[in-house]
Design a protein that fits this description.
75 residues; Ribosomal Protein L24e, Chain: T; two-stranded antiparallel sheet; elongated
């Protein structure tokens, strides 16, 4: 399973480690994923999702239905 957010499709970023002598080596910045069970009241069921911390905060602020509607995910 790829390290990717279930709702926002955020993936890892590739960049460089830069030492004091300016030598560059590749590195990967992984998203902050959290496994979370979320209750969807419209369908009266729970789903388990791997979300980024940012998506989880937005989900708590806006609500499940509004967040899914704005991201184009059908409920």
């Amino acid at each position: 399973m790829a390290r990717q957010c279930s709702l926002t499709n955020v993936k890892g970023l590739v960049g460089n480690n830069v030492s004091h002598s300016q030598r560059k080596t590749k590195r990967l910045q992984q998203p902050n994923l959290i496994k979370k069970r979320i209750f969807i009241p419209e369908e009266n069921r729970t789903v388990t999702l791997r979300l980024t911390a940012r998506a989880l905060r937005t989900l708590n602020k806006k609500g499940v239905h509004q967040f899914l509607k704005e991201n184009g995910i059908k409920v």
